[in-house]
Amino acid sequence: MSSDCIFCKIAAGEEHACRIFEDDISIAFLDMRPVFYGHTLLIPKRHFTTIMEFPDDMIYGFFSNLKLLSRAVEDAMGSQGIFNAINNRISQSVPHLHIHILPRSKGDGMRHFLWPRKQYENMDEAMKTAENISRTIERLKNAPTD
Predict the structure, then answer these.
(1) I need a labelling partner for 141 at 20 to 30 A (CA). Which of 12, 65, 76, 77 fits?
(2) Residues 84 and 104: beta-carbon distance below 8 Å
């Protein structure tokens, strides 16, 4: 637990939140400044700042909870779909890993709220980018672990 982290305090029961789910690895609660009603946050109980720090052995359980909560929010809010988002460092208002679960419906007004889109200059530029990422994946897979 990080003593100055609001999400750690919520996980420890030291701060109030409108909790909607809890198990041994995670807690879900309503975002108190929602994009849409039903906007839910899923957090791990243990403090991790980003998904890159998140232990591999917790991923299955955490993302199974995300799946359950996404279905529940969609059904409970009568929405047509769900938008899930994770910020890592940039635009992360609380530096504790969390996933946004937003109910979505056609015409709800949420457009390009996250990013402007652009195109690659040409297919060569796209292929260079893909190759760079692929090489980096291989390097990371073969790197010694901490």
Answers:
(1) 65
(2) no
